């Protein structure tokens, strides 16, 4: 733990030095309570954000085959730079928590309309239900709007789901995806890497919590690539990617490994690693200078992909 704290950027000290009971530890015992705690935390953070100025619509999209309809929330800022494109956004929360009513989705809507997906989560629904929901949204957006470009992205579990949905979309011969934006993506159900064994404070996302989440989300017979993208054998033909992570994140090594495998498969990939940054840093502490650099980099990557 001392090594983690010694390397931690001082601006993130407050988000690490919080008193228990810790939100993510609660997740191991009571998913419902953890969901409420996260929703309350996001609502508190939203009080300090500028109000969303634009159009916000909630509707349902038909699921694949016999699947239930998928709820989405669409955000469209008042002045959209690329109205002829679409960003499909997937929220984080360890595949167990979170909603489509997401602050990140709002922030990107000034670039292009953002369709934020309320995908099915564990423990009620195991993989590949979530990836199927995302593919249903990709299909319908492509068919109904014929956008010039479709970008898929997400943070944490949402980033992992974006990678898995890109794999499923390729397997299905689905619509072309122009780009995948993977923000500290949760890709590997095993975390058998040096960063995966890092001694991380319980106020952030730890190995024990993550393995518990995977045990509820991945298929009972073992994780497929549509649950954990790191399990994929073939990464050829996937859309270009941007992968960002902090160097004090449990997911660091698996994210770098996935980026390297994409590159070896001929997929253009940009990687951004931020020193002294724990999991979720740019969302939980957006005022920190490292967070500001990271968020600016994400936006630049999106702008470049949308041109």
From TrEMBL:
A GO term for molecular function: hydrolase activity
Keyword vocabulary terms for this entry: Hydrolase
InterPro entries documented for this protein: AB_hydrolase_3 (IPR013094), AB_hydrolase_fold (IPR029058), GDXG_lipolytic_enzyme (IPR050300)
Keyword match Hydrolase: yes
Residue ranges annotated for the Alpha/beta hydrolase fold-3 domain, each copy included: 87-281
Signal peptide: none
Protein name, per record: Alpha/beta hydrolase
Record lineage: Bacteria, Pseudomonadati, Pseudomonadota, Alphaproteobacteria, Sphingomonadales
């Amino acid at each position: 733990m001392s090594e983690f704290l010694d390397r931690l950027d001082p601006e993130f000290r407050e988000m690490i030095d919080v008193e228990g009971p810790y939100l993510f530890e609660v997740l191991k015992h009571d998913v419902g309570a953890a969901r409420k705690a996260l929703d309350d935390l996001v609502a508190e953070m939203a009080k300090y954000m500028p109000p969303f100025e634009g159009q916000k619509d909630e509707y349902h999209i038909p699921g694949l085959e016999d699947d239930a309809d998928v709820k989405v929330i669409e955000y469209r800022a008042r002045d959209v730079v690329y109205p002829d494109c679409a960003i499909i956004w997937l929220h984080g929360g360890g595949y167990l928590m979170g909603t489509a009513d997401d602050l990140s989705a709002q922030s990107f809507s000034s670039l292009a309309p953002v369709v934020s997906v309320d995908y099915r989560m564990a423990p009620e629904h195991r993989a590949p239900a979530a990836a199927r929901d995302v593919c249903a949204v990709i299909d319908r957006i492509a068919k109904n709007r014929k956008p010039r470009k479709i970008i898929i992205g997400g943070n944490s579990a949402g980033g992992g789901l974006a990678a898995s949905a890109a794999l499923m979309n390729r397997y299905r011969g689905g619509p072309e995806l122009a780009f995948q934006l993977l923000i500290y993506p949760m890709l590997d159900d095993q975390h058998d890497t040096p960063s995966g064994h890092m001694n991380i404070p319980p106020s952030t996302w730890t190995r024990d919590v993550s393995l518990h989440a995977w045990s509820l989300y991945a298929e009972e017979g073992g994780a497929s690539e549509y649950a954990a993208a790191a399990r994929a054998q073939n990464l050829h033909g996937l859309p270009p990617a941007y992968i960002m992570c902090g160097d004090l994140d449990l997911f660091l090594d698996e994210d770098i490994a996935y980026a390297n495998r994409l590159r070896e498969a001929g997929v253009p990939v940009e990687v951004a690693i931020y020193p002294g940054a724990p999991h979720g840093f740019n969302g939980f502490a957006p005022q920190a200078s490292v967070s500001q650099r990271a968020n600016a980099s994400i936006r630049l990557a999106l702008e470049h992909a949308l041109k």
